[in-house]
Amino acid sequence: MAETSASSPLWAGRFEQPMDAAAWALNASLSVDRRLALVDVRVNQVWAEALEEAGVLSAAERAALVAGLETLRQEFQSGNFVFQPTDEDIHTAVERRLRELVGPLGGKIATGRSRNDLVATDLRLWLMEQLGALEGALLEVQKALLDQAEASGDLYLPGYTHLQRAQPVLLAHWWLAYFWPLERDRQRLGDLYPRIAVMPMGAAALAGSGFPIDREHLARRLGFLAVASNSLDAVADRDFAAEFLFVAAMLGIHLSQLAEMVILFCSQEFGFLEIPDAFATGSSLMPQKKNPDLFELTRAKAGTLLGHLTALLAVLKGLPLAYNKDLQEDKAQVFGAMDTLLSVLPVLAAAIRALRVRAERMQGAVSAELMATDLADYLVEQGLPFREAHAVVGQVVRLALARGQSLDALDQEALLAIHPLLDERALAILQPRHSLARRNLSGGSGPLAVRTQLHAARAALLQRVLPDSSENVREERTSRS
User: Fold this and answer.
1) Where are the domains of the chain?
2) Among 76, 347, 372, 437, which residue is least crowded by beta carbons within 10 Å?
3) One of 8, 267, 283, 343 is an active-site residue; which one?
4) Using an 8 Å Cβ cutoff, are 222 and 43 in contact?
5) Catalytic residue of the set 162, 229, 284, 442
6) Translocase: present as a keyword of the record (predicted)?
7) Residue 427, C-beta contacts closer than 8 angstroms, at least 6 positions apart
8) Bridge pairing between strands 198-199 and 164-170
9) Which element (helix H / strand E) includes 273?
């Protein structure tokens, strides 16, 4: 006979036999959702006040419940709360301990609600609060990129397409090319917030509470921006979680792309950047090695974040209305993604700040061939159609390759033999500074354009995208286990 659990869950009245122990272990979620403890206590306190306003509780009953819940809050904060084997989830644990503190009155806290609307409310509140910490960590990476860009001065390097040297760009422009994708990610956090801040509480199990709860007042007290319009949708909706996981995955991809280029640029083959010892590792076998492990781990975490998104989307696919236990899997994905980002971002910000630029190696990689487009543009300015100019410069490149020479080393006679417009003025085009100076249009890689871009990036950092209530994650409202 299978071993059975000695638990007495909140729903045990319907059942004659206790739950199988292995089934109980699979069904329980306390190991994951216990970090919602302080949020759950807070929601319960406000719910007690709503029940009083609805005429369900007397003022004395409400005061006793709120006081008991305050004791719970202190126990969670101090680490003195003792979980029991009968605690199926954090909501069960809170209600069980409340009954221990205030007696049978504690059972009244569950009036007019369900764990279905409670868990959805808790998760939304937790995420609303944690987004502030995430934005702060993301801002530090952006600041590190911007600091590097501002310190780059007029240094330049090859820009790449297909991982082949293409045209010269300012190093500041290169750093900022990673700043703006992160700014889009930060803006997505702000766009997401109003869709998270919709309160499910009052939807009960699926049909709505049977008591006259003032949901709008309840939402304001908890810090929500709106209430869910449909009770069925309220308990089933996990769009906000999936959308957060998309933002997290997109952010992870951008961090991975940045990490990949740093890894390449720190290799001996490139040698453009150097990682200080504090952010590198060595080899247990090869004494000479200096490895970019932290950037490699950043690159790998993108896969972890994509996995969290894919996992939740797979759970949500095909679910019938309204609540299903499948939705218990949402928290592991949301918590995992948040933990991953909050562990990676601070280290990455410090590592980016510490990177050393090897200017001579970087600028030395910009050869005359990278100004081939500028030579074609010069011929266009002399009246040639661009396609003809392109073909002429292609012949020049082919000649240089055949001779094993750089473009600017070709003799004037050979150039004129290709086209009469390739006079001495054409050779003067083949200079990195000249190429950069031609690209001062808005968003371009020229010095003036980059200076404007630096100002725009600095201004962007001053604009926080989340409401004040989310910027400062209060310690007493956060529980990490």
Assistant:
1) 20-111, 116-364, 368-444
2) 437
3) 283
4) yes
5) 162
6) no
7) 408, 412, 415
8) unpaired
9) strand 273-274
DSSP-derived 3-state class of residue 214: coil
On whether the 368-444 domain is CATH 3.40.50.300, my answer is no
In the CATH scheme, what is the code of domain 20-111? 1.10.275.10
Q: What is the pTM of this model?
A: 0.92
Establish whether 434 is a catalytic residue. Answer: no
CATH of the domain spanning 116-364? 1.20.200.10
Tell me how far CA of residue 407 lies from CA of 128, 367, 397, 410, in angstroms.
Answer: 58, 9, 7, 6
pLDDT digits (tens, 9 = 90+) for 135-178: 999 999 999 999 999 999 999 999 999 999 999 999 999 999 99
Characterise 429 by phi-psi region: left (phi > 0), alpha (psi -120 to 50), beta (else). Answer: alpha
Contacts of the segment 41-45: beta carbons below 8 A, 24+ positions apart: 41/69, 41/72, 41/73, 41/76, 41/94, 42/73, 42/125, 42/222, 42/477, 43/118, 43/121, 43/122, 43/125, 43/201, 43/222, 44/69, 44/94, 44/98, 44/109, 45/69, 45/70
